[in-house]
């Protein structure tokens, strides 16, 4: 047991504070609202069923959140990743989490944005979120945290990525609410925390 591990019980369900700065885009659904959290910090500390990794196609490690996950998990993660034959953009592969407090890592590969976001990139990012949730439910995992995929080194504008993330999770939960207990949006930058706080009321409005 390590004191800096964060169990699910310590991660509050998201609840909006103050006036919503955004018009709702979906109906009020308190059941879904209770399944959402916004966690600001290091995803590798979360003691939950699965954390998603914003990896690259080799799955052999890298910088950013990928680097943090591999550092925390230790060399056995890289060893298992080496048996997976990589991963295509928009797809996901699941592994153990080894030295991390989570039970599994779901590795996904986001799109690289060169100049502006097109249909292809948006669809690929949507696929990342969808397939992470689908991989979790297929494996009977009920609590999952997802970082801001593609918005670091891969250059996806965070203000556009947040909409894809929230929309995809909302739609997935509407179809599969009985299969998941919690989806945690894990933000690392203050600017992303603010973006999510602004946009969450549009996708998960309160009654
Ligand atoms: N916990 C949560 N989020 C984090 C952490 C952490 N410990 N560290 C960084 N972030 P990035 P990408 C945030 O660049 O854009 C790697 O080299 C970060 O602030 O990690 O999908 C891979 O191997 C940002 O908001 O992922 C690939 O080559 C978000 O994670 C490439 O980067 C994603 O930033 C993938 O690029």
From TrEMBL:
One Gene Ontology cellular component: nucleoplasm
GO BP terms, alphabetized: DNA damage response; peptidyl-glutamate ADP-deribosylation; purine nucleoside metabolic process
Domain Macro: 23-204
An MF annotation (GO) of this entry: ADP-ribosylglutamate hydrolase activity
Signal peptide (residue range): none
Protein name as annotated: O-acetyl-ADP-ribose deacetylase MACROD1-like
Full-length numbering of the shown residues: 148 to 354 of 361
């Amino acid at each position: 047991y390590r004191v800096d591990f964060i169990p699910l019980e310590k991660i509050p369900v998201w609840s909006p504070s103050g006036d919503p700065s955004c018009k709702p885009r979906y109906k009020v659904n308190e059941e879904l609202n209770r399944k959402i959290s916004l966690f600001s910090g290091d995803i590798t500390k979360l003691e939950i069923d699965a954390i998603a990794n914003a990896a690259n196609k080799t799955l052999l490690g890298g910088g950013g959140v990928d680097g943090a996950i591999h550092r925390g998990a230790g060399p056995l993660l890289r060893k298992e990743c080496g048996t997976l034959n990589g991963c295509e953009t928009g797809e996901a592969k699941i592994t153990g989490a080894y030295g991390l407090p989570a039970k599994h890592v779901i590795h996904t590969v986001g799109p690289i944005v060169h100049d502006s976001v097109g249909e292809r990139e948006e669809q690929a990012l949507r696929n990342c979120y969808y397939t992470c949730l689908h991989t979790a439910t297929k494996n009977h995992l009920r609590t999952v945290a997802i970082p801001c995929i593609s918005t670091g080194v891969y250059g996806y504008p965070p203000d556009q990525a947040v909409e894809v993330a929230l929309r995809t999770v909302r739609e997935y939960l509407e179809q599969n609410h009985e299969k998941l207990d919690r989806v945690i949006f894990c933000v690392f930058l203050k600017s992303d925390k603010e973006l999510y706080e602004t946009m969450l009321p549009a996708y998960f409005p309160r009654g």
